[in-house]
Amino acid sequence: MFLENLLLLAEILLINIVLSGDNAVVIAMASRNLPASLRKRAIWWGAGGAVGLRIVLSIAAVALLDIPAVKIVGALLLLYIAVHLLTEEGESKEVKGVASLGKAVGIILLSDLIMSLDNVLAIASIAESNLWLMAAGIALSIPLIVWGSQLILKVLERFPIVVWIGSAILGYTSGEMLESVQAVRNWFPDWGDLEDDWIPFSTALIVLIAGFVWRKLAAAARHGEASRGTKGER
After folding, report:
1. Quick one: 28 exposed, middle or buried, by C-beta within 10 A (0-12, 13-18, 19+)?
2. Residue 188: enclosing H or E segment and its boundaries?
3. What is the largest CA-CA distance in the chain?
4. What is the dihedral angle through the alpha carbons of 10, 15, 16, 21, rounded to the nearest 10 degrees?
5. What is the pLDDT of residues 57-69, one digit of tens each?
């Protein structure tokens, strides 16, 4: 039981960190115009508010995911998030810096609310009914993101396998959600012992294949553009 909870906490931390790369950038940009004495306060107030906000939203998501139709929609959305995590190009987030502490904290909270819907769904799906572990994972990961945003980004760039692992976990979780709905199980034949595992493993594999194919196509497209540019210069 202890090892299961530890593994679940590690999954929540990993997913929250992988999906929160942009949030640390938003926090830094929103508070950049404040005096140094207020900047740290804005960062920590904003981060603390974000923790509370995510915990409340995640608890609400856990309750909603008990509804079969919502669970199916959530599973498909989670599958999209898993693929998008591997295909996104890391677009920069432009956030206006302000000189007021209250406004900076407000911008941080609003931005975190808008940008963290994927985190909330992913964490709620993984945590299921274990609300204490979910809250602990969120509370631990936010300070990690604030303190080590640059380090986290460097790790993700240097070890892209971390992103692939996170996406595979999301894909597997999506499959588990689909598998838990009786109506979905009725769509598929009874395959005996495979029934408990094949849907989550299939959705995880779909995510990895989709990410691999998209990256290959994107690399080929960039190579083609570079070749046309070289010919044009000649």
Report:
1. middle
2. none
3. 66
4. 130
5. 888 888 888 888 8
Q: How far apart are CA 111 and CA 32, in angstroms?
A: 15
pTM: 0.67
For 214, counting Cβ atoms within 10 Å of its Cβ (0-12 exposed, 13-18 middle, 19+ buried), the class is middle
* Backbone dihedral region for residue 98 (phi beyond 0: left; psi -120 to 50: alpha; all else: beta): beta
d(CA 150, CA 140): 17
State the Cα–Cα distance between residues 137 and 18, nearest whole angstrom. Answer: 13
Between the CA of residue 62 and those of 2, 27, 125, 129, 192, what are the distances in Å? Answer: 22, 27, 7, 7, 29
Query: How does pLDDT run across 130-156, given as a tens digit for each residue?
Result: 788 788 887 777 776 666 555 665 666
